[in-house]
Design brief:
By secondary structure, the protein is of the alpha/beta class. 44% of the residues lie in helices and 18% in strands. It folds into 2 domains: 181 residues, Spore Coat Polysaccharide Biosynthesis Protein SpsA, Chain A, CATH 3.90.550; 34 residues. The chain has 7 helices and 7 strands, in the order E-H-E-H-E-H-E-H-E-E-H-E-H-H. The chain has a 7-stranded mixed beta sheet, sandwiched between helices. The longest helix is centred in the last third of the chain and has 32 residues.
């Protein structure tokens, strides 16, 4: 499978506008850039990815993309996310892609194992792998083989639309449900949820470290 990843990044001047009550524009811009850096680092560690396209409009995004060995695709129109993704998908196909993975840059808990799981062998196309957000309505990861299997329909209730479109196309559909893929950052509630999840994960890691320390002492 010659899979290319598409990472869409919205214009930084309007970055995460629904978080404006909690964060300044400067803070929101910085958050988006840091999340993009983290995402590109995780993707770069997955050997089954043939290439990474970042579609956006900003010089800062272009610079981050270049620094991480990815390809920047200048968004040509103001037609919104789905047109930008369609344009990037055509570029991926031009570069030899036989499948595409769309991964937003605002998933703060995404892990390399999530990407590896999405890219595991799935037999012959056509097939769609998709991960919903925590509400079960949005789409936080979408793997399409072949690339033109369905039209992108990101937005409210996109999960249901993507699944329905793939089934109409006669494709196999696999739903990936992972907490690390479900958590995004769009509104103040997401920040609160991220804090709770992060605190829980930190406590879990602390307990695990204590167990390992005890085992090491015992072995000595």
């Amino acid at each position: 499978m010659n899979c290319w990843v598409i990472v869409p990044v919205k214009r930084l001047s309007a970055a995460k506008s629904r978080l404006a009550p909690n964060l300044t524009l400067c803070q929101r811009r910085e958050m988006v850039c840091l999340l993009l850096i983290r995402t590109l680092g995780i993707l770069a560690s997955e050997k089954r990815i043939a290439g990474i396209l970042v579609v956006g409009k900003d010089r800062a995004v272009r610079s981050i993309t270049a620094n991480h060995g990815a390809v920047f695709v200048q968004e040509k129109t103001n037609g919104g996310l789905n047109r930008a993704l369609a344009y990037a998908a055509r570029e991926a196909v031009r570069r030899g892609a036989d499948s595409i993975l769309v991964l937003p840059a605002d998933l703060p808990l995404v892990k390399q194992s999530d990407i590896a799981g999405a890219l595991k062998p799935a037999g012959k196309p056509p097939f769609l792998r998709i991960a919903p957000d925590h509400t079960g309505h949005g789409t936080n990861l979408l793997l399409s083989a072949p690339p033109g299997l369905i039209r992108f329909s990101f937005g409210e209730d996109s999960f249901q639309r993507h699944v329905a479109a793939a089934r109409r196309a006669g494709a196999r559909v696999s739903v990936i449900r992972r907490a690390s893929l479900a958590q995004d950052l769009d509104c103040p509630d997401d920040l609160a949820r991220l804090y709770r999840v992060g605190l829980k994960e930190s406590t879990k890691n602390t307990k695990e470290n204590r167990k390992n320390t005890k085992k090491e002492k015992f072995l000595k």
